[in-house]
Amino acid sequence: MRRRDFIKGIAGSAADWPLTAARAQQADRIRRIGMLSNKSSGDAQGREEAAAFAEALKTHGWISGDNVQIDYRWGAGDGERYRTYAAELVAQAPDVLLAVGGTVVGALRRVTRDIPIVFVATSNPVNRGLVASLSRPGGNTTGFTIFEYSICGKWLELLKQIAPRMMRAAVIRDPSEFSGVAEFAAIQAIAPSLGVDLSPIDPRDSGAMERAVRDFAHQSNSGLIVTESGASIRDRDRIIALAAQQRLPAVYVTATFATAGGLISYGPDEIDQYRRAADYVDRIFKGEKPAELPVQAPTKFELAINLKMAKTLGITVPQTLLARVDKLIE
User: Fold this and answer.
1) Contacts (Cβ under 8 Å, ≥6 apart) of 304
2) Which CATH number describes the domain made up of 149-253?
3) Distance of CA 196 to CAs 187, 222, 317, Å?
4) Which residues are CB-contacts of 68 (< 8 A; sequence separation ≥ 6)?
5) Which of these, 136, 110, 145, 147, lies nearest to 290 by C-alpha position?
6) How far is CA 239 from CA 22, 45, 67, 330, in A?
7) Model pLDDT, residue 28
């Protein structure tokens, strides 16, 4: 090789060094995830969900504290906290936001329409205005719904199976949200065939909800259905204790409630949603857009029964239910 050509080659390679170094730096940089949960920092289920998400990221090569940093915020069903923490997380300019629950998604979207948001445990995202459609979300938001309304009737069926003498049921719901109205309508559709009268309880605040449940419990052969809402998450322990005090058999939307002491629950496997959310985060890290990732429905559902609460209420759980149970809390 002639000396002039050799120098020219070296010069050309040197010109490429800054670009190569920049690409390497981009590939090696620490990615950042902001997670805003609707649970409290001391909630065991919330911690398990967060751990499942981090563990699932590892399977894609994203290791917390190594090449990815996860910043956690715990809203505990408090709208004011959601707004505060949403602003904090967005100010940190994360690569992706993980939102737990529809109200949390709304709080984040009020602060950013640019940072990708992956949600879990969210009902009816289209009617909430979080996505344009399930197949083509559009915008910066996609994720995983908590359930389809067809399973709401299943809650009443299960309650009737575990408490066959029940003739009336109170339904704790949030009528200010579409999901609260739709859940009650789905339960109402099946109630006549089971010979059950329904009474909605709209919890304006914790005190009003408690008084309404106590008044309802004065009637014999009664039960309680606790639907998915910010209020039910915020007052979870109070509702469970209230049901026990009033000797009301109660059914809940997720295993979180049964694990915390509730009698019976039926709903999606929440842990599985966090694993699937990690898949979406990985795809976004690799260049895919939330607008093009379809919103997905649950693929796994679980029946949970708390035998300790059943004993407290004097209920003998039918063998038909025990044969189907996915999670038995003793």
Assistant:
1) 255, 258, 259, 264, 265, 266, 325, 326, 327, 328, 329
2) 3.40.50.2300
3) 10, 9, 20
4) 30, 31, 32, 33, 57, 62
5) 136
6) 55, 17, 41, 20
7) 66
User: Residue 1: what pLDDT?
Assistant: 46
Strands 301-306 and 117-122: unpaired
- Using a 10 angstrom Cβ sphere, with 0-12 exposed, 13-18 middle and 19 or more buried, the burial of residue 164 is exposed
In single-letter form, the type of residue at position 159 comes to L
Residue ranges of the chain with per-residue pLDDT less than 50: 1-26
Identify the residue whose tokens are 């996609």. Answer: 142
Domains 28-146+269-299 and 149-253 equal at CATH topology level = yes
Q: Give, in order, the Cα–Cα distances in Å from 240 to each of 4, 17, 73, 259.
A: 83, 63, 25, 11
Burial zone of 1 (CB within 10 Å; 0-12 exposed, 13-18 middle, 19+ buried) = exposed
Q: Is 33 helix (H, G, I), strand (E, B) or coil?
A: strand
**What gap in Å lies between CA 273 and CA 267, rounded to an integer?**
12
CATH of the domain spanning 28-146+269-299: 3.40.50.2300
pTM of the model: 0.82
- What residue spans define the domains of the chain? 28-146+269-299, 149-253
Angle between helices 206-217 and 236-245 (to 10 degrees): 20
End-to-end CA distance of the chain: 81
Contact of 217 with 246, CB cutoff 8 Å: yes
pLDDT in tens, 110-153: 999 999 999 999 988 998 899 999 999 999 999 999 877 888 99
